[in-house]
Structures are given as structure tokens and as C-alpha cells.
Design goal:
The protein is 27% helix and 27% strand. By secondary structure, the chain is an alpha+beta fold. The chain has three domains: 157 residues, Aminopeptidase, CATH 3.40.630; 132 residues, Gcn5-related N-acetyltransferase (GNAT) (Aminopeptidase); 90 residues, HIT-like (HIT family, subunit A, 2-Layer Sandwich), CATH 3.30.428.10. Strands 1, 2, 3, 4, 5, 6, 7, 14 and 15 form a nine-stranded mixed beta sheet that branches. Helix 5 crosses helix 8 and helix 6 runs antiparallel to helix 7. The structure holds adenosine monophosphate. The site of adenosine monophosphate (AMP) has 13 residues, from loops.
């Protein structure tokens, strides 16, 4: 077994890549030798490519890249008859070593959607419509246990939903739902800037700057909105159709105080109908396992076609004060007894419980303490407080509970990563300090 740095073996590598596409080992779209170079060897992405030889035959290759603190493994493929001989592991280790050597600032390697090299892929079992990069490691393949065995840890699961729009039917109960929303003064319609206000405030409320940027620049396009008293309280869109017929939109959201009234489902029904009318033939959606959007998609008839794990391995520790114990828990380097997780936050049982139920809730982003809350990250804290009642309910804390956050030395904060203790399951003292 020999693993060496790439030296013009594009044809052999493409043969491996395409074979694993054709035999169903991967969902990727086959590539050409020319495309191979554009994808894997683009000098602007800090590429690394290694090739495995058995004698003088190329039987495996792997590719990655790095920009800044994050490196990425894009692909590792081994011909089926040469598996279980350590080629995949040897290539992964060479890639990690080469990326760490060439990029001293690199802290971690990830397998995620944000990889600058986007390998197009197809939804399994359906006509080949290109999708941009995969949102992580395909959990139904051997790649998932392979990366786990190399020390990569999953931190979210991203599900891919798919529906041919010819199969979409507005749910029977939608007419009743729209009627009841109307009775409460809420109308689902297309956005009309001359009649509707409050779009910008919606993004203040939900705290998503990416959506604000993308949607506010396209207000003249078709956007489905929920409106109350002339004010936008929810949106989805703008609606557009890709040349392959995929229905596209940028986000779906409802103001926090109007959630749980079925407005999301009504917006989504408007979206599916609008996209069909514009000629879209299918929709593919991606969302986290714990994201409530999944219930909207599932109730509209969308099914999960694949689940992907976002995976990460820490290569170099960050400075001590930022890679705190809770960041280590988020990264999967320290185990925890998780009770809730989504893309933004994590809740786990306290290692040293002070009550029958003692759960610590943290944002995944490192905020040192209460004094670190600002306009940019306060949406995260709001999200924590929206989630706490759900965690408490799931824990059966019907009789109440206490939420505490210690800030600074006087309050005996011992972990410098903002966190909220949920304490319950007993009658607590009425003195608080
Ligand atoms: P505080 O004293 O408010 O900073 O709270 C920190 C809390 O984190 C304490 O209650 C600790 O028991 C808890 N804690 C520290 N390390 C861990 C860990 N590895 N897993 C779970 N809880 C932890």
C-alpha cells in the first residue's frame, strides 16, 4: 500500500469517482477529468489531494482544502475490492497532515455544506436534478462510521426532504386554517410594499441577518407573507424556479409571538402552490433534525430521502479561554448527557446536579457570560428561552421550575460560557441568594 501526493492521476481518480457514483456507493454526479481539476485542485482553496496505489494501479484517492481556521475533507473514495485494507484511513491521515502543515491557522476539519468545493449530487431514486454540495456525511453509507472511527464527531443531523410538486395537494384542513386565521385578522397573501409594513422588524424579531440581507434585496419579487393589521408577521420566499424545475425560496419564518397558530403551515402551503404555478416540478428542502420546520414539511407530504451528519474533528485547540469545557462538549470532545440539541443550542444534564432535575442549556457559539449578550447574538438567547419550556415539559416539570444564570465571580460562575440552569423536580427554597 502506497499513498502519495497527487501527480496528474486525474483519469484514474475520475474512473474511481464515477464508478462509486454508478454503483450507488455515493449520490454524487459523475465528473470529467477537466472538472476534477477545477473541483479538487483549484489553488485558491488551499487544496490537498492524495492517491492510493496498489502496485502501479490507482485504487483510491481523497481530496480536501482549507481556508482560515477550517479545513474540509471533500471526498475519500476507495475501489470496492480494496476496502478494509486501511487505504481510506491512510488517505484521511495524509490529508489531515498536509492541511495542518500548509495552514498553521487551521483549528478543525469539517465535513459540511459550507465546503468551498461543492460536489453536485442527485436525490436517490428520482430523475437526476443537480443539488449543490451535500450537507454533511451521508449517514446511510459506510462513510459515517468510517469518519467516526477517525475521530470525527457529528454535531447536527441535516435531513433532505423531497417532493415532486405533481404529488403536492393542499392539505384538506388548510381552508379551515386560513378561515380561522382570517377570523383573527391574519391574511396569507403576496407581499405588497404599498400596503404592508414591518418586514425589517420581522428580521429583528427572528434574529436572522442572512435572511434579512437576501430577502430585503428582493422585495419586488413574489414573497408569500402573513399580514396582521398591515404588518408582516411571517414570510416565505422569494419564489423562484431553477432551470431544472426546482422550486426555490429563501427561508420561512414567523414572528415569535405568533408561533404555534399554524401560520408556518399556511405560508408553506402558499409557497408550494405559488411555486407550482410558476412551473416548479419539485422541491428539495434541508433542515436539522430538531428544527420545527420539519413538522411543516412533513405535514405537507414531504418525506426524508437522506440524512446527513455534519462532522468535525478538532486538529488544534483554540486558546484556552475560548475553547472552554462547554465548547469542548459542543465539539463532541467531551461527552455529555444530552437532552436537547438543534443547530444553535444544546442542553445536557449537569454533572453535579443540585436538584432532582438539573439541566444546563447553552448556545453553541461561545458567549462568555450575560455581559456578552448584544444585538447580534440576542436572538440565540431568545431561542434558548423559547426552548426552555419545551425542555421543562419534556422533563415532566409540571409544577414549575427555576432558571438561573450565574454571571461573574460574585455569582460563582464557574464555566465561562453563558449557560442557563433549569432546576426542578422538588420544592425549592424561597430565598434565592
Ligand atoms: P456555573 O457554576 O453557573 O458556571 O455552572 C456550571 C455548571 O456546569 C456546574 O453546575 C457544573 O456542575 C456543570 N458542569 C461542569 N462541567 C460539566 C460537564 N462536563 N458536564 C455537565 N455539566 C458540567
Amino acid at each position: 500500500m502506497t499513498v502519495r501526493e497527487y501527480r496528474n492521476e486525474a483519469d484514474a481518480c475520475v474512473m474511481i469517482f464515477n464508478l462509486l457514483c454508478e454503483n450507488g456507493d455515493t449520490l454524487f454526479k459523475p465528473i470529467t477529468a477537466e472538472r476534477f481539476e477545477e473541483l479538487f485542485l483549484d489553488p485558491s482553496i488551499g487544496p490537498a489531494v492524495f492517491v492510493g496505489y496498489e502496485g502501479d494501479r490507482v485504487i483510491a484517492f481523497g481530496a480536501g482544502n482549507c481556508a482560515g481556521e477550517t479545513g474540509y475533507i471533500t471526498y475519500i473514495g476507495v475501489l470496492p475490492e480494496y476496502r478494509r485494507r486501511g487505504y481510506g484511513k491512510a488517505i484521511a491521515e495524509k490529508l489531515e497532515g498536509a492541511l495542518a502543515g500548509a495552514h498553521p491557522e487551521m483549528k478543525k476539519i469539517e465535513l459540511v455544506f459550507y465546503n468551498p468545493t461543492e460536489l453536485p449530487w442527485f436525490i436517490p431514486g428520482h430523475a437526476p436534478h443537480d443539488h449543490a454540495g451535500q450537507p454533511g456525511v451521508d449517514m446511510s453509507t459506510a462513510a459515517y462510521p468510517f469518519y467516526e472511527s477517525l475521530g470525527y464527531r457529528a454535531w447536527t443531523v441535516q435531513n433532505t426532504y423531497y417532493l415532486p410538486l405533481s404529488e403536492y395537494r393542499t392539505p384538506d384542513e388548510m381552508a379551515r386554517r386560513l378561515e380561522s386565521l382570517r377570523e383573527n385578522g391574519i391574511e396569507i397573501t403576496y407581499y405588497d410594499g404599498s400596503r404592508h409594513g414591518g418586514f425589517s422588524e420581522l428580521f429583528d424579531n427572528i434574529g436572522n441577518e442572512g435572511w434579512r440581507r437576501r430577502v430585503m434585496a428582493r422585495l419586488d419579487e413574489d414573497i408569500v407573507v402573513a399580514v396582521k393589521d398591515g404588518k408582516v408577521i411571517g414570510y416565505t420566499g422569494p419564489l423562484s424556479v431553477s432551470k431544472e424545475g426546482r422550486g426555490l425560496f429563501c427561508g420561512i419564518a414567523v414572528r415569535t409571538e405568533y408561533r404555534h397558530h399554524g401560520i408556518g403551515k399556511a405560508l408553506f402551503a402558499g409557497l408550494c402552490k405559488g411555486l407550482s404555478e410558476k412551473g416548479a416540478t419539485f422541491m428539495s428542502l434541508f433542515t436539522g433534525d430538531n428544527n420545527p420546520a420539519r413538522y411543516v414539511y412533513e405535514s405537507a407530504g414531504f418525506g426524508i430521502v437522506r440524512s446527513f451528519a455534519t462532522m468535525r474533528k478538532i486538529i488544534r485547540k483554540k486558546e484556552k479561554d475560548t475553547m472552554c469545557i462547554f465548547c469542548e462538549i459542543v465539539a463532541g470532545n467531551i461527552p455529555s448527557n444530552k437532552v436537547y440539541e438543534d443547530e444553535k443550542i444544546l442542553a445536557f444534564r449537569d454533572i453535579n446536579p443540585q436538584a432532582p432535575t438539573h439541566i444546563v442549556v447553552i448556545p453553541k457559539e461561545h458567549i462568555p457570560d450575560m455581559n456578552g449578550i448584544n444585538a447580534e447574538n440576542s436572538g440565540l438567547i431568545a431561542h434558548i428561552f423559547e426552548t426552555i419550556p419545551k425542555i421543562a415539559a419534556a422533563e415532566g416539570l409540571k409544577n414549575g421550575y427555576r432558571v438561573i444564570s450565574n454571571c461573574g465571580p460574585d455569582a460563582c460562575q464557574s464555566v465561562k460560557h453563558i449557560h442557563f440552569h433549569i432546576l426542578g423536580g422538588t420544592q425549592m427554597a424561597d430565598k434565592m441568594a
